[in-house]
Design a protein that fits this description.
Structural class: mainly alpha
CATH topology of one domain: Farnesyl Diphosphate Synthase
Largest sheet: 2 strands, antiparallel
Number of strands: 2
Order of helices and strands: HHHHEEHHHHHHHHHHHH
Shape: globular
CATH superfamily of one domain: Farnesyl Diphosphate Synthase
Strand content: under 5%
Helix content: over 70%
Radius of gyration: 20 Å
Length: 338
């Protein structure tokens, strides 16, 4: 089933994150250097595991957003570099922890760190990266930025526990699921967007606008990931198609398919998700039901809604290359489902 591609309702566009990458390229090079320096440790396993994940080809979208919002707000110091590195360390730590909780075998097309070094080491190195992230935040000396990022760390952990509590629970509603991803995914996007205007000394209305942008981008980003798990391909996912299904994850396509199905179809979902009957034939049937009930295309439509909310959050801000690049990020988010 690793080669399955299911059409999910959106045509690809020319949207790209390249304009954003070009605008923040010089600063991002400094962020990458700082990241490498902060993964150093006399404990050999720490830099090995950190380097394995950091070098595995992530887009670094969250730290780029921190750099872009700081630049867009006219910030001229160096603290945005440090905060962007902190954001990426927080993200990397959550990936290490997620793979342990989810028992994932792959991450970005490579073996997950837990498969090479074990669960215990992955969790502990994740903790090390979180500690380094907070040390860097303290170095910046902005209590407001520290407050935002530390709150995000708490909310992300709450989201992880919420997801664990909802695991294999097919009675999960769409609202309950959205609460999970607002915490687990969107909270860090929001914080990444918010700290830029904070250190630039902008007023609260500007900060709130960037927070809204980040929150809604984060929700949309996760919804597209949910759809891609059933409608993508290995090269775009960095993992096998259907991994969420095999792991019994409750995601929006499952929520919609379960609620829209008849009694027999709901029994199938209970056997698959709750009881772990996730053979290739079961995945084929799951894909059939998602197509029948338009669960994937509707998930993409939901994501499109959140990108429009994010776009409106940016609308009052002055025209600039940075504003255009952030709008392109929103289109890129949706275009991944093409």
């Amino acid at each position: 089933m690793s080669g399955v591609v299911v059409p999910i309702g959106e045509k690809p566009t020319n949207a790209s994150i390249k304009p954003l990458m070009q605008l923040v390229g010089n600063d991002m090079a400094r962020v990458n250097s700082l990241i490498l320096s902060k993964t150093g440790s006399d404990v050999k396993m720490i830099p090995e595991i950190a380097k394995h994940l950091i070098d595995s080809g992530g887009k670094r979208l969250r730290p780029m957003i921190t750099l872009a919002t700081a630049q867009m707000c006219g910030y001229e110091g160096d603290h945005h570099i440090t905060l962007a590195a902190s954001v990426e360390f927080m993200h990397t730590a959550t990936l290490l922890h997620d793979d342990v909780v989810d028992e994932s075998d792959m991450r970005r097309g490579k073996q997950a760190a837990r498969m090479l070094w074990g669960n215990e080491a992955s969790v502990l190195v994740g903790d090390f990266l979180l500690g380094q992230a907070f040390r860097m935040m303290v170095d910046v000396g902005s209590l407001s930025a520290l407050r935002v990022l530390s709150h995000a760390a708490t909310v992300i952990a709450e989201g992880e526990v919420l997801q664990l509590a909802a695991a294999k629970n097919l009675e999960t509603t769409e609202d309950e699921y959205l609460t999970v991803i607002r915490s687990k995914t969107a909270a860090l996007f929001a914080a990444a967007a918010e700290v830029g205007p904070i250190i630039a000394g902008r007023d609260q209305s500007i900060i709130n606008g960037f927070r809204s942008f980040g929150t809604n981008l984060g929700v949309a980003f996760q919804l597209i990931d949910d759809a891609l798990d059933y409608g993508g391909n290995v090269s775009s996912l960095g993992k096998n198609v259907g991994d969420d299904f095999r792991e019994g994850k409750i995601t929006l396509p499952v929520v919609l398919s379960y609620r829209r199905g008849n009694d027999e179809e709901r029994k199938f979902w209970k056997d698959a998700i709750s009881n772990g009957e996730t053979s290739d034939a079961a995945l084929e049937n799951a894909l059939h039901l998602m197509t029948k009930y338009e669960a994937l295309s509707d998930t993409v439509l939901r994501a499109r809604h959140y990108t429009e909310v994010a776009k409106d959050a940016l609308a009052p801000m002055p025209s600039s290359a940075h504003k255009d690049a952030l709008a392109d990020v929103l289109e890129f988010c949706i275009s991944r489902a093409g």
